[in-house]
Amino acid sequence: MPAEAMPESDREVAIRIRDLEVGFGEKTIMKGLDLDVYRGEILGFVGASGTGKSVLTRAILGLVPKRRGTIEVFGENLDELTPSSRKAIERRWGVLFQHGALFSSLTVKQNVQVPMREYLDLSERLLDELAMLKIEMVGLQPDAAEKRPADLSGGMIKRAALARALALDPEIVFLDEPTSGLDPIGAGEFDDLIATLQKTLGLTVFMVTHDLDSLYSVCDRVAALGDGKIIAAGPIETLLASQHPWLRAYFHGKRARAVAGGV
Length: 263
Ligand SMILES: Nc1ncnc2c1ncn2[C@@H]1O[C@H](COP(=O)(O)OP(=O)(O)OP(=O)(O)O)[C@@H](O)[C@H]1O
Ligand SMILES: [Mg+2]
Description:
The chain is of the alpha/beta class. The protein has helices at 53-60, 83-90, 108-119, 124-137, 154-165, 184-201, 212-217, 236-240, 245-252, and strands spanning 13-24, 27-38, 42-47, 68-73, 76-77, 93-96, 172-176, 204-208, 221-226, 229-234. Helix 3 packs across helix 4. The protein is globular, with a radius of gyration of 18 Å. 35% of the residues are buried. The site of adenosine-5'-triphosphate has 11 residues, from helix 1. Keywords: ATP-binding, Nucleotide-binding, Transport. Residues 15-252 form the ABC transporter domain.
């Protein structure tokens, strides 16, 4: 049975978040947040600007501290890891950040090699071969390898950043608004690339997005953040049927896309 047809209770969980609270100073960004991300799915993560989608992503990665709650990745509680098991978990995920996706002073190839140099002990020749493989995998021409971000189009930068996220052959990739700033055709091509890579590499994808087309075309499930909690999670039909005011405005408002079949 395909994984997405299995009852949710039987599915293997890649990321389990329980009772998460994150805040800065006086401000509480999320509280009592629970979320499961299943292995092998593309989870689309939506929410109004400033609700904390990037903060949640960074909290999972350990880049912002949490006040309470647990985060498990592949069944391991991230608070209980030794430094070496922490390093081992970090090798199993890759990240495409929302801002500053690439180091501007480095070439594409050098950017892709940053995580490789941090986590692997490889010869320069092997580093070059591996980087070229990743660059090809995301649909960039080999001559992009020696270019710097300033010489690339927006779409090429996103692809290069994806190549870097894939540098360590991760099992989970976090993509924070990977298609923002791309024209609809470029965004569609990027979505197709993510879907193809997800299938061929068996990736689990956590994708923050505002792009309705991405939600419809590539996401297996969608989770929505609002008021510091998950307000709905499930197949897109579940979110379309939600009565939550933000979800109604988002999916059925003036800028929502006309859904085939008239949902
Ligand atoms: N390091 C920080 N210190 C203080 N406040 C922060 C920090 N990082 C984020 N915030 C605040 O947390 C809130 C959530 O920010 P976040 O970037 O996660 O929003 P978002 O949902 O990703 O929005 P967008 O869709 O615009 O990317 C915002 O109010 C932001 O100002
Ligand atoms: Mg964000």
